[in-house]
Amino acid sequence: MHSRHKILVFVFGFLTLLWSSYLFILQIVDPFHFADERRIRYTPYKEILIPTRGSIYDANGNLMVSSISFYQIDIDRKAVSLWAKEKNISLNEAYNILSEAIGKNCSITPKQVLQRLTLNDKLTSVQITNKVREMELERILAEFEKNKLPGLTYSFASMKRIYSQELLAARLLGSVRAVSDGYDVETQSRSIYQLSGICGLESTYNKYLAGEYGWREVVFDAKHRRMPYPNLHEKPEKDGYNLHLTIDANIQAVVENALYEGLTKYGAKNAGAVIMDPNTGRILAMAGVSPDDKSLDPAEVRVRANIPVSFLFEPGSTMKPLTMLAALDRHLVRPNEYFECGVYYVQGRKISDTHMYGSLRPVDIISKSSNVGIAKIAERVGPKHLYEKLISLGYGQKTGLNLQGESSGMFAKLDNWDGYTLHSVSFGQGMAVTALQHATAFCAVANGGKIMKPYLVDYITDDNGNIVERTEPEVLRQVCSKAAADTVRSYMQAVVDRGTATHIKADYITIAGKTGTAQKAAEGGRGYINGKYTSVFVGMVPADAPKMVMVIFYDEPSPGYHFGSMSAAPTFKKILDDILFMPNCNIVAFDQRLIQSSKRMPDLIGKHIKQAEAILNQYGFSYKIEGADSSSVVIDQFPKPNVSVDPAHPITLKIGRGKKEAETELLPGVMPDLCGLTIRKAMQVAARENISLKIKGSGIVRRQSIQPGSRITNNTTCIIEASI
């Protein structure tokens, strides 16, 4: 018995040793390479993390462009079937439970989810929707986690760019498109979603706005459920930076409204304008419009050419002050010197003025716009020095703004000048410029001779609001003496005081300007197109120390309006008035006489058109109405509410359909549109979304600080402004 016990112990001991050795060899030595099989089975899948494209704000912090991400959710019906068996319920009951969990947390209904789940009898994965917003996805995931529901998978689907201001600055902002090409080594993916800028600021600053992709490793079990697994790696995505522009949306709206009005009144094909701060190079507004822009979808307008930087036109007589600048800077002209004007024959060419002026001083050559006088002054400057001066002013080259689509203009090299070029260039023929080039050059006249580098982006921030890059004013070069620039500016003031633009003279501010009327050059050949003109005006205010330089032009205005004095100059005056009447305008202090004679613009937004007309008639304003005949409610107005307005200043009302206060369907996690609602109604809507309101004023909500459709979180605070 004792020997049997020893044998039994020996056998079990030997078997234990043998089994332990086997396990040791199997797991440590691994002669059958099971580790490789195990690694293959549990190889993590790299999930791409898509960054959110950066937003764009105007100079006042108003949101102009933002992004909304959408996700696709799928349900593995086989996993649902197994779960139903475990819970001892029918498959249809399981589908109903999942449909309710998804439907109550996003914009699609439980009925729609159930229709997708029961599309057929196959137990395969089925797509439910690809339009789930990020906040909705978070609620769905929380619901599935809470109730231990099976089968849910999700992935990034698309990103939508939201242009809050619709048509405003459309060509400047540009557009994007979805790109899913290429191969990424890190994620081993052959199709990476990308929202890429294709034109405008979206393209120029694409590398800042786009952000950087990330990835994370995930492991799924046999039921396609995410499994916890050690040592998984992750590279977080980096959201795009935000652009803060120098563009003031209020000024931009004033400019575009005036240009659209001018297109209709003057019958032009295109119009453009640039407003710059001559002391810094900041671009306050940049607008280019065509007559059919308003009839098109804003997305179509955004892919059109940005007119102020791409459209070329001959500057005409607006070049005369710059020719004069070249002469004054070299002391080739005396202020009290007289030049015989009227008709001038040179090398068989006849140069003539519109009137027989006789003898004119330099100031009168500019104020009366004498071709003969400026041609004679150009002869004193000479081809070489005039060419060099205009090159130093930036003609024939890009401005340094580096905006996508910018043209360098057309300015012949000195070696290609013929016997007529010197005189032609002196009064703005034989060359082509962009509105941006022209504005940049005249900024030097306004600021004492410095060419400032123009810029559109004030600073760039990350997702936490930290400034990562700021644009500082940059002087590119000094092109003339301060004395020469100041003298030319005084000559331009004479244009408005007693010359070709006296009809835009203002009592409350001094204006320096120059009108221009240029024939359109024939395409692909020499000469000009009969009856086709470009109307141009360059102006700066106040004349003694300009804070704003503005270039306005119309392409092919109707006969009679083709003169710069008849179309571009009045538009300049209208824009100037609207800007100066803005409450926060700091260009010049109001004259007391102006304040006493002006009236405060009433707030008409949200009022019935009949009521608005009665108020305007009571104030004695002249006005016009834009919008469909079937519309009845004022949706916008120019000038804006509470602005000081001269009674003679024309008022524009835009009408549309009234906002009903009926219950509207709210999307969870999305900022609702509160404008047009009463304060009480707005508070009810906000309460349902856990939005805190800060209320300014009383009556009807006119404005809200968070744009409708923007992503919000719990306890978001929104500032609303209301008025009676």
Structural class: alpha+beta
Mean pLDDT: 85
CATH topology of the largest domain: Beta-lactamase
Q: What's the total number of strands?
A: 32
- Please tell me how large the radius of gyration is: 35 Å
Poorly predicted regions: 182-190, 659-665
Q: What is the strand content?
A: 25-35%
Q: Helix share of residues?
A: 25-40%
What is this structure's SSE topology?
Blueprint: H1 2-29, H2 34-41, E1 45-49, E2 56-57, E3 63-76, H3 77-87, H4 91-103, H5 110-117, E4 125-133, H6 134-147, E5 152-163, H7 170-173, E6 175-179, E7 194-199, H8 200-204, H9 206-210, E8 214-220, E9 226-227, E10 234-235, E11 242-245, H10 249-266, E12 270-276, E13 283-289, H11 298-302, H12 307-310, H13 320-329, E14 339-340, E15 343-346, E16 349-352, E17 359-360, H14 362-367, H15 371-381, H16 383-392, H17 421-426, H18 435-447, E18 450-452, E19 457-461, E20 467-470, E21 475-478, H19 482-498, E22 512-521, E23 528-541, E24 548-555, H20 568-580, H21 592-597, E25 599-600, H22 609-619, E26 623-626, E27 633-638, E28 644-645, E29 651-656, H23 679-688, E30 691-697, E31 700-704, E32 716-723
Parallel strand pairs: 2-11, 26-29, 30-32
Antiparallel strand pairs: 1-8, 2-3, 3-4, 3-5, 6-7, 8-9, 8-10, 11-19, 12-13, 12-24, 14-17, 15-16, 18-21, 19-20, 22-23, 23-24, 25-28, 27-29, 31-32
Helix pairs in contact: 3-4, 4-5, 10-20, 13-15, 13-16, 13-19, 18-19
